[in-house]
Design goal:
Largest sheet: 4 strands, mixed
Radius of gyration: 28 Å
Structural class: alpha+beta
Strand order of the largest sheet: 1-2-9-6
Helix content: 40-55%
Number of helices: 21
Distance between the termini: 80 Å
Length: about 525
């Protein structure tokens, strides 16, 4: 009405006509919007023409021809069911990109602070709904068997026992829930699994898959009828549920699988676009806009700051853009260190392996994980009086297998030199696993158009990790060269470094103070 009133006063104002067309678009009346704009007496025909083209494109994107009719109908039934059950999401729409691949988009402009989505607690899948609502879940709960992933197991029972009353309640959601986890490394084929050998997280994936198998076998032993579920089906359900749950510490049950909210994709370049939370007073899961969102724009939620290897590991995809790339470094004691036993005792560490830490070679700032890596490297390479470093060993609170950690800043030039040599050595050990150069792997990606989605992802992660380990060696060599220069020479080099990264700050916070101390000694 306000737009119509404004148009009476300014009938040739193009922006007003576009606002009215947007109202049609919000109601999915694309043809009406195009017809209206085609007849609008506008003073700017070019801007109207561009808007008509945009609307025609939006219409095509909202109704792609390659999507199965059954999938479209199931989605419609699901959204209708959500509305009837009290979910509020009038400002968004689901857009299909391909089979079982979809995202959430704005139906109209959403302003910062506005709610995008509200899902009442009754529509949220939780652990208790699985063991209260299904006989299988109840039997598993009663057996007292140890379960490491209880929310996966019990929510999974809603899928496995589809005839139960609880499962029927969630039927519209369960019908559109993905059933294919083949993009996750846990579910790779034998040939794909073999390619994982060159990736840093292969052993971790193997251990977690082994843990899931052990859990499946424990449950099947305690509740024999559970054995009728194939392990592959149990694994698929568990992997998918793990990838789609939200952790809300203030919710009655912190692990939540939230219908519709689980369709928001991760948008690395829009990490501050939305905020999701559980609102206790309303007993609801809420997603709000943190910034203005334009009509038609995709809306995402932040999956967290993770390396591409972790995205592949836990979500089955690799983001196109990622500023949080990292690689693991396994730091171990030197077996010929005369202080070995004393150092192990100080850290309450019986093994040669000290810590497996993530290193961020391309971080644009000082990052805690990198500082922690240097703390342990300095401690491992320290050869003096241990009473000097003992004050920097911190007792950790809470249940943990590792009760102590170390926060050791720069000690001496010689110790820093040894720490850098150790860092370089660790990276070089990791580089030995690669049969191909980065350029050769890039060539495979570019030339082999028939590569499967999974094999392409493996090669992409391999390129990323290979490049990061090379960057660590490069930085270590550069730092070692600096240790042979004077304080003034290094300060001059630092001054001419235009792009400030973690390495520049490492030079400023560690190397320069050590060199300055040497100058004054």
């Amino acid at each position: 009405c306000m737009i119509d009133e404004a148009l009476k006063k300014n009938p040739h104002e193009s922006e007003l006509h576009i606002l009215k067309a947007n109202v049609f678009c919000e109601e999915d009346k694309f043809d009406e919007a195009i017809t209206y704009l085609s007849q609008a007496p506008s003073s700017d025909t070019e801007i109207i023409k561009k808007k008509v083209e945009w609307i025609a494109k939006e219409k095509q994107l909202d109704d792609p021809p390659n999507i199965d009719l059954k999938e479209k109908m199931q989605m419609k039934d699901f959204l209708d069911w959500m509305r009837k059950k009290g979910a509020i999401f009038s400002k968004i729409k689901i857009r299909h990109y391909g089979k079982n691949y979809r995202g959430v988009h704005a139906k109209g402009k959403i302003f910062a602070g506005e709610r995008v989505l509200t899902i009442p607690a009754d529509l949220i899948l939780t652990e208790s709904k699985g063991f209260v609502g299904t006989s299988l879940g109840a039997k598993i709960k009663k057996s007292g068997v140890r379960i490491d992933y209880p929310y996966c197991t019990y929510i999974g029972c809603l899928f496995f026992e589809s005839a139960s009353k609880a499962s029927q309640k969630f039927k519209p959601y369960l019908e559109i829930f993905p059933s294919d986890a083949s993009a996750f490394p846990f579910c790779y084929t034998k040939d794909e699994w073999a390619q994982l050998e060159t990736l840093s997280f292969k052993n971790h994936v193997e251990k977690e898959r082994s843990d899931w198998l052990a859990e499946y076998q424990r449950i099947a032993k305690a509740v024999p009828e559970f054995a009728s579920i194939k392990f592959e089906d149990y694994l698929t359900a568990s992997v998918l549920l793990c990838s789609r749950n939200f952790y809300c510490h203030n919710a009655p049950e912190p692990r939540l699988v939230v219908p519709l909210a689980d369709m928001f994709n991760h948008l690395m370049h829009k990490t501050d676009q939305t905020l999701w939370q559980y609102v206790s007073e309303e007993r609801a899961f809420v997603v709000s806009a943190k910034q203005d969102i334009e009509i038609g724009e995709e809306i995402g939620v932040n999956y967290g700051a993770k390396a591409s290897s972790r995205f592949l590991h836990y979500y089955g995809f690799i983001p196109d853009y990622n500023t949080y790339e990292s690689v693991p470094l396994q730091i171990s004691f030197n077996t010929d260190d005369p202080l070995l036993k004393d150092k192990q005792k100080l850290l309450d560490c019986a093994n040669i392996e000290v810590r497996n830490l993530q290193f961020f070679p391309e971080a644009p700032y000082i990052i805690y994980s990198n500082e922690k890596t240097f703390s342990y490297l300095r401690f491992v390479e320290y050869s003096g009086d241990l009473s000097v470093v003992t004050p920097y060993i911190i007792e950790k609170s809470g249940p943990s297998a590792r009760k102590r950690k170390i926060d050791l800043k720069r000690i001496s030039l010689e110790n820093e030199r040894k720490a850098l040599i150790k860092l370089k050595s660790l990276a070089n050990i990791c580089l030995k696993r690669y049969a191909n150069t980065v350029e050769e792997d890039q060539s495979i990606l570019e030339k082999k158009k028939d590569l499967s989605y999974n094999l392409a992802n493996i090669i992409k992660v391999r390129i990323i990790e290979h490049r990061l380990y090379e960057k660590i060696v490069l930085h270590a060599n550069k730092a070692l060269d600096m240790l042979n220069l004077s304080y003034e020479e290094v300060k001059l080099q630092d001054k001419h470094m235009t792009e400030k990264t973690w390495f520049n700050r490492y030079v400023e916070t560690s190397l320069l103070p050590l060199l300055e101390k040497k100058t004054h000694s």
